[in-house]
TrEMBL record:
MF terms (GO), sorted A to Z: glycosyltransferase activity
Protein name according to UniProt: Glycosyltransferase family 4 protein
Transmembrane portions of the chain: 96-116
Originating species: Haloferula rosea
Record CDD domains: GT4_PimA-like (cd03801)
Taxonomic path: Bacteria, Pseudomonadati, Verrucomicrobiota, Verrucomicrobiia, Verrucomicrobiales
Length: 416
């Protein structure tokens, strides 16, 4: 009898989970959502099984990454399957051509997720960006009794802020969820204000290069600044570029910008118009090994995030955690979930968004004060290891899958 009970409890404690997302790595070398990929690999060995359900990209079929099966559903001819990945759907759907893909994307996704849940005997669906992907969880929940965990990152709330239809839809999808999680205290507060739902803050860690971080500055004679991330409007690179001439008036400096996105060409042109060709390098996507080298060489990491035209901003800023883990002083905007990562004057320096003068002053302060830079780097690494440790984040996620310790979802008054 005890063996039967133990076996039953084991199945409950190690459920079959499917991570549902619009974006996931397309190959072993792809750099899409590295934090989600890392979380999947960290939680997989604690579960009976874990799969990823995601849309295709240019005809991409089901494949494996890190020994995890990534199921891909088709929703358009291969040449048109570009609604997700790279710049991301929120940016792309501003174009009419991409808007026409939304309906087939949602319909085919709903059918695929339900069919896969039946085939895989899935017990938990972890839905990232519940608007619109909460739609895909309805049939599995209603007909199969699948447990639904909704994960809000902030982009869906930016849409809900500007549209009553989106806000109503998001509220409904969340009402059908068994657990609601968010990536930062900022996202939690926005979710409560807009939709009236309490949530659990479950941050992501960072994919840190395999290196021994050091508080030492680069051995280069010329100090260097680093930015990593998608080159989209809310990253605010134009603010940094416009602040750079004032920095250069005080001291020599270099800037390295990694990543790709729909604003890259515009910002390259801005850099040239400001006469920064010899100072700024746009290097595109880089490998973990190359990124580790860039961290070792940089004097400070700069993240000048802003609210974009739709009100979206950084839900957490996972790359900031990575910079802290590499013992680098961080200068960032005081927006969104960044304040969970950067404690002003303790783990980095925060400045108002779009404030070029404040950004210039913060950069010069760090570059001219070795003791400050070293202290920020050391305290930042300690903060990252305590709060954003991957094992801690993975354990929290598994507990939510198991339905242990976080109670029922509660409602609070929301805006109309």
């Amino acid at each position: 009898m005890s063996t039967i009970v133990s076996s039953f409890q084991g199945r409950i404690n190690r459920p079959r989970v499917a991570v549902v997302t619009s974006t996931y790595a397309r190959s072993q070398d792809d750099h899409q959502v590295p934090w989600m990929r890392e979380m999947a690999t960290r939680t997989a060995n604690r579960l009976e099984s874990l799969k990823v359900y995601a849309p295709s990209f240019r005809g991409l079929r089901t494949h494996e990454i890190d020994d995890i099966e990534v199921r891909r559903f088709r929703y358009a001819p291969a040449s048109r399957e570009m609604l997700t990945h790279d710049s991301g759907a929120p940016s792309k759907t501003r174009s009419l051509g991409y808007k026409l893909l939304i309906l087939p994307y949602l319909i085919m996704g709903a059918f695929a997720v339900f069919a896969w849940c039946v085939r895989d005997r899935t017990k938990v669906l972890h839905i990232h960006w519940p608007f619109p992907h909460g739609l895909w969880a309805l049939l599995p929940k209603w007909l199969l009794g699948v447990r639904v965990v909704a994960m809000c990152h902030g982009a869906e709330l930016a849409l809900a802020r500007n549209s009553k239809i989106v806000r109503w839809s998001l509220k409904f999808f969340l009402s059908q969820s068994d657990e609601i999680c968010v990536n930062s205290s900022h996202t939690a507060a926005e979710l409560k204000r807009l939709c009236g739902f309490a949530s659990k803050v479950v941050p992501y860690g960072a994919t840190v290069p395999d290196m021994e971080p050091s508080g030492e500055e680069s051995s280069s004679v010329v100090p260097s600044l680093l930015f990593c991330g998608r080159l989209i409007q809310r990253k605010g690179i134009d603010v940094l570029l416009r602040a750079l001439p004032a920095v250069l008036a005080e001291r020599e400096v270099k800037l390295v910008i990694t990543g790709e996105g729909d604003r890259k060409q515009e910002w390259e042109e801005l850099s040239r118009s400001l006469g920064l060709e010899s100072v700024v390098r746009f290097v595109g996507f880089v490998s973990n090994e190359e990124l580790g080298k860039l961290y070792r060489e940089c004097s400070a990491y700069v993240h000048p995030a802003i609210h974009d035209d739709k009100g979206d901003t950084e839900g957490l800023g996972v790359v900031l955690i990575e910079a802290l883990a590499n013992c680098k002083p961080v200068i960032a905007s005081q927006v969104g979930g960044i304040v969970d990562v950067i404690l002003d004057g303790e783990t980095g320096l925060l400045v108002p968004e779009k404030d070029e003068e404040a950004l210039t002053a913060a950069i010069l302060r760090v570059l001219s004060d070795d003791e400050l830079a070293s202290r920020l780097g050391e305290q930042g690494r300690l903060h990252a290891s305590r709060v954003f440790d991957w094992d801690r984040c993975a354990a929290m996620t598994v507990r939510i899958y198991q339905g242990r310790g976080f109670g029922a979802i509660t409602r609070v008054p929301a805006i109309g």
